[in-house]
Amino acid sequence: MQHISVKAFAKINLGLLITGKRPDGYHMLETVFAPVNWYDELTFTSADELSMTCSNLDLPSDDNNLCLKAASALRDYAEMTKGATIRLTKNIPFGAGLGGGSSDAAATLRVLNVLWGIHAPSDDLHALAVKLGADVPYFLESSGLVFASGIGEQLQDLERSLPFHIVTVFPEEHISTVWAYKNFYPKFERKVPDLKEMVFELCENKDLTVLPTFENDFEAVVFDYYPSVRQAKEKLLEEGALFASLSGSGSAVFGLFDRQDAAEKAMQAFGDKSRASLTPPSFKMIQRS
Ligand SMILES: C[C@@](CO)(OP(=O)(O)O)[C@H](O)COP(=O)(O)OP(=O)(O)OC[C@H]1O[C@@H](n2ccc(N)nc2=O)[C@H](O)[C@@H]1O
Ligand SMILES: Nc1ncnc2c1ncn2[C@@H]1O[C@H](COP(=O)(O)OP(=O)(O)O)[C@@H](O)[C@H]1O
């Protein structure tokens, strides 16, 4: 009985600029994905049927779970009906803007593609990933700092890594991505800064003056409706973060620190460890099946 265990890491968005809306309702955006040291754990075991368990009972363990959606999409693609038992230990908060569900879906595609002996080419897996979620291709194909455009599926590896300690905090608010895209305040006329260039200046020259460029277009509406999220960002700055921002559509916020002791002190200021994570400089998603 084959058995594969992997980690599915979370991401933050360093800058998130929404530049337009497509006829199908999806929004065009420019963003930089960065992996953080917060991960779900998944175990896949060959079986006759396809099923899963999830440690977080607030999440579905049926076809509404992105793991089973990914597994079913792969079975349909390969026109086969092999089974597997998927065990998900959920550590990444959901509705947090951390991409946890998308990361789980990507891990499922990657592992079952091997476990079931399908060996689908990467372009085909990419097409399946995009249908599962705009963020899924990032987790499937990348391990580090990536510029994303389109709806978030067009990826360019920036071949750089952040020289900062990252403190990521979940302020106990579940925010729906759909709600955020429906209610954000559009700034489509804005001159869009070159996030790739800003990342180069930040990582290569440690030019901190570029940090205000990394705006998140969801922040204004999220802070209006969820004051606790604004307060979490302010607290990170009070604790000495060089920069702090909402991640994705929220509610998680992250702060960049140049010193480990300041980052660890900031972690402690947020109390309960299970709702915060510390990522070292130059972090990459290393777990690959
Ligand atoms: C906002 C971002 C930023 O990285 O991440 P999260 O905050 O969810 O982590 C992403 O754009 C979320 O990607 P993902 O969570 O995969 O979204 P999907 O499941 O594909 O889409 C959920 C819904 O969000 C809206 N959506 C999503 C992506 C996009 N570029 N434009 C959109 O308008 C659509 O209404 C869609 O039906
Ligand atoms: N395995 C999963 N992990 C997290 N969320 C899941 C999963 N399967 C389905 N979902 C649903 O997908 C939604 C988005 O999850 P997630 O990708 O974690 O969003 P976000 O990046 O906004 O936190 C959740 O609100 C949840 O209802």
UniProtKB/TrEMBL annotation:
Query: What are the record keywords, sorted?
Result: ATP-binding, Isoprene biosynthesis, Kinase, Nucleotide-binding, Transferase
GO BP terms in the entry: isopentenyl diphosphate biosynthetic process, methylerythritol 4-phosphate pathway; terpenoid biosynthetic process
**Record-linked SUPFAM superfamilies:** GHMP Kinase, C-terminal domain (SSF55060), Ribosomal protein S5 domain 2-like (SSF54211)
Question: Which one of the record's GO molecular function terms can you name?
Answer: 4-(cytidine 5'-diphospho)-2-C-methyl-D-erythritol kinase activity
The GHMP kinase N-terminal domain extends over 65-140
EC numbers listed for it are: 2.7.1.148
- Annotated Pfam families: GHMP_kinases_C (PF08544), GHMP_kinases_N (PF00288)
Q: Where does ATP bind?
A: P93, F94, G95, A96, G97, L98, G99, G100, G101, S102, S103
Q: Where is the GHMP kinase C-terminal domain?
A: 196-270
Active site (record annotation) = K11, D135
Family that this chain belongs to: Belongs to the GHMP kinase family. IspE subfamily.
Q: What does this protein do?
A: Catalyzes the phosphorylation of the position 2 hydroxy group of 4-diphosphocytidyl-2C-methyl-D-erythritol.
Recorded protein name is 4-diphosphocytidyl-2-C-methyl-D-erythritol kinase
Q: Which organism is it from?
A: Prosthecochloris marina
